Amino acid sequence: MRVTSSRIKRIRPSSLMWPARFLLIVSLLSRSASAFYIEQELYAGSECRMEDSSWGVCTPLPECPYRIKEVLAGQRSATTTRGRCSFEHTTEIVCCPLWDVTSSSKQTTTTTTTTTTTTTTQAPFTNYVRPAEEACQEYDNEISGKNTEKVTTNIIGGETVKQGEFPFAVALGFWGTGLDAKKVVYDCGGTLITLRHVLTAAHCINNMDERKPFEVRIGSVNLNDRNEYTQHIGIVEWISHPDYRRNSVYNDIALLRLRRAVDTSRTVQPVCLNYLPLNNLASYANSSLIATGWGNIDIDGERGSDLKKTHNLSFVNRNDCNQYYKSWSSKLRRGVDENTQLCVIDRSLTQRSDSCQGDSGGPLIFITKPGAANSVIGVTSTGQSCGSSVPSIYTSVYPYLDWIESIAWPREYAAWQSRLGA
């Protein structure tokens, strides 16, 4: 189970009846400890490191049985900074083990709706459900009946995307170069897959120019908007796939870990990862494939788009795709790898829209049904030119699921592997 910040605030250890002595201790701790300096402030719902370096979630002290036991055992006082995240008013926010937060939740599925978010507590993982599938089920429950915008747009020369249509689309912010060194430019895209992880292309963070993004921007379809929906969050970890090499386009996939968890809303939500193999691409012939991004608006234009654009796309088989990329022998020494790469094009006679520079790292999305969690099946990797008749190459998500899950959901992934006897 992934725990949202809104969920953390609602978890109550209802099955535990704490004595008045404990409540008094916690009250005194919260009031007196607020005067102490906090080295790195984290907020309720943020991920944090436990003393054993495992991941935890920042949680109000009265809602974390693990830390409550420390208080009752006399191991935690007003001067204790160990495991402290921050304060909310006079309440200490502590780093609580993920398993402890989960165990204090109800073991059934319930949904609570507020004006901005939907909170779901999930039952524990079933025996053979992998983390990506479990997350998808949770996301589907959270957005059911809420995010029903119809997807109808395209990247090159397309229509404007509606607010909240792609709440998982992320723009990666880089510092400019030369005279624009103090200006933020959004040269790559990404996909929010957990509250603190973004999926993108490895070449966006590991490249010959030695440039990497310092922040993500999410929540608004226009890069110039300054509204209540937009969130700017710093990046604290850049993880390119270990087999990625700068001089090729294989294994072009990466993950970013954010400084804090996003605040979920109608315009900010993680998306499903495709957890099924794409063995038979013919079965997707009538499906809706969409690419999103903030790349060039015009085929020959240099300026970047302020708006997300999308378009219905189609798969191209490996042999046909390789015909287009014969001249790329240095970057595609083995040709297009049908196991890890997808070749996609717009077959329309009037528009050959596809992805452009600036769309790199953005998602290739498989549209299922309105109001349900769509899934990301690819990451925009490379192409020959914007809007041409040449297909673009995307990194397929499914072959990299083990690597992604081990980073985005390490505890759940380890438990799933253990159940499989790995």
Would you write up a description of this structure?
The protein is α+β, with helices and mostly antiparallel strands. It folds into two domains: 5-103, mini-chromosome maintenance (MCM) complex, chain A, domain 1; 169-410, Trypsin-like serine proteases (Thrombin, subunit H). The protein is built from eight helices and 19 strands. The chain has helices spanning 5-10, 20-33, 65-72, 98-103, 131-143, 318-324, 401-408, 410-420, and strands spanning 47-49, 55-60, 84-88, 91-97, 110-113, 118-121, 169-175, 184-192, 197-200, 215-218, 231-240, 254-258, 272-273, 288-291, 312-315, 341-345, 363-367, 375-382, 392-396. Helix 7 packs across helix 8. The longest helix has 14 residues, at 20-33.
